[in-house]
């Protein structure tokens, strides 16, 4: 559905050339939810502007929904862009128009007749769950409702690709989750290909099938979300994964624990997929003469399975501790001994 080959984007500025996108190669399949994550300045916005033809690459080929976006212009580009819609962090709604009128806007531009337009707007309002709010103005809506209008408007002309530019970054965590659920629902119901850019790993974790990590204009790591969580290779990817798997207070808890329990081992267990359901702790207590303290843990759901991280403290006779560790290693659960007292 989307292919990028050796794509570069260089901006010429007064203080010299800035390479915003550096030799990016990506292939995004039809019906996929693909996430691009990176910190500020990584080149995400530049990349997304290249995908919808708002900007041309300095070099390289970009194909989206069957159109060679990098080399077409004029009517051809306008037609191609009907297939590529976008939602934004700050919604970009028309403030003097009601919900219904905002959603109707792209249909008016596309020349859709009034009766058909009204019918389509009603369908879209139902699809995004805004029934009863049709005549409200954007200023009368919550952030989540505004983004629902943005999504309905983006879907009006039945696009094949939806680009999401930090679409939940201005929303609180609960509203973020409801908008992400809506995107998954739309992806499943309409088979829409979704590309989203974000700096939040939670967003990737919750809805994406695959992810690309960007740093200094380059894609430094790419893969299935669960695999990237399981084996992050690059330091930047490890930092992003920790956003989700390791609560901020972990270091503090571990330091505190070592003070309170000067003996034993502190261990981080990483569960992926089915192993997250294994009754490991029960087995440890039953099989070995050791004390097991659960420090903290978190199991997160991704689109392709569960992913969890559990910090435990084991104490007991040295030999028994080593036998217990051996047992854990044999369960195909990833183990890291983070502190040996
Ligand atoms: N129009 C432009 N002219 C000159 N430089 C630009 C332009 N747009 C982006 N850049 C530069 O390109 C680099 C990548 O910026 P970009 O906005 O694509 O990153 P980003 O990952 O989207 O970050 P943010 O989330 O902060 O927007 C930055 O160094 C930025 O200053």
UniProtKB/TrEMBL annotation:
<dbReference type="InterPro" id="IPR041701">
    <property type="entry name" value="MetN_ABC"/>
</dbReference>
<keyword id="KW-0547">Nucleotide-binding</keyword>
<dbReference type="Pfam" id="PF00005">
    <property type="entry name" value="ABC_tran"/>
</dbReference>
<dbReference type="Pfam" id="PF09383">
    <property type="entry name" value="NIL"/>
</dbReference>
<dbReference type="GO" id="GO:0005524">
    <property type="term" value="F:ATP binding"/>
</dbReference>
<protein>
    <submittedName>
        <fullName>Methionine ABC transporter ATP-binding protein</fullName>
    </submittedName>
</protein>
<keyword id="KW-0813">Transport</keyword>
<dbReference type="InterPro" id="IPR045865">
    <property type="entry name" value="ACT-like_dom_sf"/>
</dbReference>
<dbReference type="InterPro" id="IPR003439">
    <property type="entry name" value="ABC_transporter-like_ATP-bd"/>
</dbReference>
<keyword id="KW-1278">Translocase</keyword>
<dbReference type="InterPro" id="IPR050086">
    <property type="entry name" value="MetN_ABC_transporter-like"/>
</dbReference>
<dbReference type="InterPro" id="IPR027417">
    <property type="entry name" value="P-loop_NTPase"/>
</dbReference>
<feature type="domain" description="ABC transporter">
    <location>
        <begin position="2"/>
        <end position="241"/>
    </location>
</feature>
<dbReference type="InterPro" id="IPR018449">
    <property type="entry name" value="NIL_domain"/>
</dbReference>
<keyword id="KW-0029">Amino-acid transport</keyword>
<dbReference type="InterPro" id="IPR003593">
    <property type="entry name" value="AAA+_ATPase"/>
</dbReference>
<dbReference type="InterPro" id="IPR017871">
    <property type="entry name" value="ABC_transporter-like_CS"/>
</dbReference>
<keyword id="KW-0472">Membrane</keyword>
<keyword id="KW-0067">ATP-binding</keyword>
<keyword id="KW-1003">Cell membrane</keyword>
């Amino acid at each position: 559905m989307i292919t990028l080959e050796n794509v570069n984007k260089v901006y010429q500025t007064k203080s010299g050339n800035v390479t915003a996108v550096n030799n990016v190669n990506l292939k995004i399949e039809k019906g996929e939810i693909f996430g691009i994550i990176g910190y500020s300045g990584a080149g995400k916005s530049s990349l997304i502007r290249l995908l919808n033809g708002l900007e041309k690459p300095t070099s390289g080929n970009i194909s989206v929904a069957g159109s060679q976006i990098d080399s077409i212009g004029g009517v051809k580009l306008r037609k191609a862009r009907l297939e590529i819609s976008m939602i934004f962090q700050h919604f970009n709604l028309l403030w003097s128009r009601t919900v219904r009128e905002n959603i109707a806007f792209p249909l008016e531009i596309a020349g859709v007749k009034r009766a058909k337009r009204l019918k389509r707007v009603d369908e879209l309002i139902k699809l995004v769950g805004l029934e009863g709010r049709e005549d409200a103005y954007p200023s009368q809506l919550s952030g989540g409702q505004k983004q629902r209008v943005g999504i309905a408007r983006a879907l009006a002309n039945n696009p094949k690709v939806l680009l999401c530019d930090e679409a939940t970054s201005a929303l609180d965590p609960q509203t973020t989750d409801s908008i992400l659920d809506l995107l998954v629902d739309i992806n499943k119901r309409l088979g829409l290909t979704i590309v989203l850019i974000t700096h939040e790993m939670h967003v990737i974790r919750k809805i994406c099938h695959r992810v690309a990590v960007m740093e200094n204009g380059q894609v430094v790591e790419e893969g299935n979300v669960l695999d990237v969580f399981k084996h992050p290779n690059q330091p930047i990817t490890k930092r992003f994964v920790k956003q989700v798997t390791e609560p901020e207070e972990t270091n503090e808890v571990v330091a505190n624990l070592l003070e309170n329990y000067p003996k034993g081992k502190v261990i981080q267990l990483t569960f992926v997929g089915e192993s997250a359901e294994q009754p490991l702790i029960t087995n440890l207590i039953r099989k070995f003469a050791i004390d097991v303290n659960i420090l903290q843990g978190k199991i997160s759901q991704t689109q392709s399975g569960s992913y969890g991280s559990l910090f435990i403290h084991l104490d007991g006779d040295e030999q028994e501790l080593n036998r217990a560790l051996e047992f854990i290693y044999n369960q195909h659960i990833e183990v890291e001994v983070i502190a040996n007292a």
